[in-house]
Amino acid sequence: MAGRSVVGPTALRMMLGGHLRELRERAGVSRTDAGWAIRASESKISRLELGRVGFKERDVADLLTLYGVHEAHERDRLLDLAREANDPGWWHRYGDVTPEWFDAYLGLEATAELIRTYEIQFVPGLLQTADYARAVARLGPSGTRPDSEIERLVALRTRRQRALDREPPLKLWAVIEEAVLRRPIGGTAVLRDQLDALLEATTRPNVTVQIIPLESSGHAATGGAFSLLRFPQRDLPDIVYLEHLTSALYLDKRDDVETYTQALELLASTSPPPQQTERQLLRLLQRLA
């Protein structure tokens, strides 16, 4: 086993931020007044409540006082949460090779119990072989990366995949365009090994793969790749993750999450069922023989 599921700092920040927002609204305090209490702006309060930034214990203590939270046990619980939320996760060791905006996703991925993803360009990272991940890393927009940086990125990708073996294991449901599995990233041999690895992954009880055939007439997810993350903590809403070239979006508003959930469910229901994935992969492998 690769360890137990833990709540990462990103998720803890979101949980604490949600608690503080509820306390502020219950106390009838505006974001402007809350910002004044901790010598910050209204936008800083908004970022804190969304879990986008770290917490200073002094700020949390001042906000709790402003919101009328004086009971020692409750204050201690939330201040402990603030301290835990500031502890770096294991992925921070790779901060030298990943953009800052990707850290939040790594923290959420480490906490999630279910990730559903739609892919149009690459095999999902959690299912990539080392050679495939190495070839993807060489496609980076910044030009030629040094080999040492590429190997760090591959090590990060491999470390992330331990989530599929932890207790309880992360559940992954991937809907992949067939064009992804025909694109010879890294060359034919790398692609063949990647297809073999996907074939093996489909035997895992916690991994589901569906492939959208090239001849598909179209579908609802016309906006590009995205992922939906669900968490075991009731305090955390589902999150939609959208990655761009130089940034990422994290959507947790109910309407946004519902729209993407419906799109993914439509993709899954109109694509060949998972029971056909093995046959589809074997057919793709035959093309490379």
From TrEMBL:
GO molecular function ontology, one term from the record: DNA binding
Start and end residues of each DUF5753 domain: 103-280
A Pfam family of this chain: DUF5753
Xref: InterPro entries: Cro/C1-type_HTH, DUF5753, Lambda_DNA-bd_dom_sf
The protein's name: Helix-turn-helix transcriptional regulator
